Amino acid sequence: MKNILFIASECVPFIKTGGLADVVGSLPQCIDKEYYDVRVILPKYVCIQEPMKNLLTYKTHFYMDFHWKNEYVGILEAEEDGVTYYFIDNEIMFDGATPYGKDGYKEIEKFAFFSKAALSILPIIGFKPDVIHCHDWQTGLVPVYLKERFQGNEFFRGVKSVMTIHNLKFQGKWDVKSMQDITGLAPYYFTPDKLESFKDANLLKGGLVYADAITTVSENYAEEIKTPFYGEHLNGLLCARSNDLRGIVNGIDYDEFNPETDIHISHKYNAMNFRKEKIKNKRQLQAELGLKQDDKIFMIGIVSRLTDQKGFDLIAYMMDELCLDQIQLVILGTGDEKYENMFRHYDWKYNDRVSANIYYSEALSHKIYAGCDAFLMPSLFEPCGLSQLMSLRYGTLPIVRETGGLRDTVVPYNELESTGTGFSFANYNAHEMLAAVRFAERVYYDQKREWNKMVDRAMAANFSWQESARKYQEMYDWLTG
Ligand code: ADP
Ligand code: GLC
Questions:
Q1: Is the peptide bond before 13 cis (omega within 30 degrees of 0)?
Q2: Structural domain that includes position 380
Q3: Is 307's C-beta closer than 6 angstroms to any atom of ligand 1?
Q4: Residue 17 class from Cβ within 10 Å (0-12 exposed, 13-18 middle, 19+ buried)?
Q5: CA dist 284 to 109, 184, 360, Å?
Q6: Burial per residue of 124-144, b for 16 or more beta-carbon CB atoms within 10 angstroms, e otherwise
Q7: Is the domain of 238 the same as that of 140?
Q8: Mean pLDDT of the chain, nearest integer
Q9: Which of 15, 257, 365, 368 to mutate to test the pocket of ligand 1 (most atoms within 8 A of CB)?
Q10: Which of 304, 326, 428 is nearest to 375 (CA)?
Q11: CATH of the domain at 218
């Protein structure tokens, strides 16, 4: 039996802002429980909601030296589907209405505290991991601390670490002086071959230098991040560590995202009966959102964080032209104000055709995956992307830019060979995106049989965790010999 410990900043069903939470929520469940004991450590954010909050039970607490103070570290525990979750409690560190705040300095302090506390609780809970699996910049300090002070401790000897990049854009950067102060690490660590990066201290970089292996969430993104365009100034380091870097594509939870059993959608369907049943979800969605009732109209969905990463400047540029077509557009998302307001504006301007829902809703997201005909995701970069996988599962054909995981998971439609599961375009260019949408419209309106055959293929594509979980297991085995 091998002990695997996930340390991460979000996880379904406790707390979620994006795909990271889906991955940390579903991957541990899919690792073979006969051979691996997988546990997860998370922050106990004050904003964790009922009923999940009620599931956490207090275990113990202690005080830890951190940032010149002696800080309270509470440990809470929960069990879900055979996986044990530990929560680090400190109400001052983890306060706020959302997991991540706007004050950069406080974010650094919060996750430095979290990283140190996560290692410190292990001897207390008596769980000695063979591999610690860290996720994104918030846990970048874990491999550093593990090598630095904890390896001197018998308990931590030989523990391996993996750093998974879900998003290279966010790195946890701050000035070196403050970072030394917060982390308590010696000046030795703040050189360009370690935590320093372009004069600042960089927590993700620390993780990437000190982890025993590095992964990211699609094969294509693993290649892309070695180039200057996608490398976010860490491409040099990633090239240097390319022997230890691999891409393993994300899966989605096939029980949670299943049109046949989905509790959020009004009409269940499957690969056999979608031709008759899927449309009922579209009608329902049109009624619920106050769009024109029209079975025939091409309905495009978007469920996303509204940030530059997702290609919304291309959409903004094309909105008027797009809305001249015979389409309906349903948006669900929150994020940058400029995009929130852009969609509100078009909702006002084209009221019966555009529906902007600027909030977070699990239920509405499922209704969009099920009810729309196509799903638009023209990302500037996309480490993996889960929304397109959810769309495929619901027979809602993705229209994507050929980048990162989108390129690995959506097969572009080929008219001549009658292959493909969606539509794509190559360059980050608004007219190319519009052309891809219009190609989809043409197939939808003029070649319905072809469209439906594509839905067949999309629903048959398999992006469950099975294969990818096996690859993670292989990596854990390789690391531990
Ligand atoms: P990212 O992690 O970059 O945000 P992904 O495609 O990997 O992108 O994952 C996004 C996840 O967040 C999906 O599960 C998607 O359904 C969900 N999501 C994003 N915005 C919302 C929202 N406003 N309401 C509900 N779910 C959302
Ligand atoms: C990040 C990426 C997204 C990926 C998710 C889960 O948020 O932006 O592409 O699917 O992490 O790995």
A1: yes
A2: 274-462
A3: no
A4: middle
A5: 46, 56, 19
A6: eeeeebbbbbbbbbbbbbbbb
A7: yes
A8: 97
A9: 365
A10: 304
A11: 3.40.50.2000
Cis bond before residue 143 (omega within 30° of 0)? no
Pocket residues: Cβ below 6 A from ligand 2: 18-20, 23, 166-167, 217, 250, 382-386, 405
Q: Which atom of ligand 1 is nearest to the CA of 20?
A: 2
Using an 8 Å Cβ cutoff, are 143 and 134 in contact?
Answer: yes
Q: Is 278 exposed, middle or buried (0-12, 13-18, 19+ CB in 10 A)?
A: buried
Which tokens is 95 given? 């306060």
Residue of 41, 57, 43 lying closest to 4 (CA atoms): 41
Bridging pattern class, strands 374-377 and 2-7: unpaired
Same domain, 247 and 282: no
Structurally, the chain folds into a number of domains equal to 2
pLDDT > 90? residue 150: no
Q: Which residues pair with 396 in a beta bridge?
A: none
Based on the fold, state whether residues 126 and 111 are members of the same structural domain: yes
How do beta strands 131-135 and 160-165 pair? parallel
Q: Is the CB of 470 under 6 A from ligand 1?
A: no
Average pLDDT over residues 405-416: 97
Q: Tokens 């319905």: give the residue.
A: 448
Query: Which tens digits make up the pLDDT trace of 208-226?
Result: 999 999 999 999 999 999 9
Is residue 256 one of the residues assigned to a domain? no
β-bridge partners, 72: 63
Distance of CA 219 from the midpoint of ligand 2 (Å): 13
Pair 75, 140 in one domain: yes
Q: Please tell me whether residues 155 and 40 are part of one structural domain.
A: yes
Q: What is the pLDDT of residue 470?
A: 98
Q: How far is the CA of 196 from the centre of ligand 1 (A)?
A: 32
Confidence class for position 152, pLDDT limits 50, 70, 90: confident
Judge if 184 and 332 occupy the same domain: no
Co-location of 204 and 323 in the same domain: no
Residue type for position 353: R
Please, which pLDDT band fits residue 148 given cuts at 50, 70 and 90?
A: confident
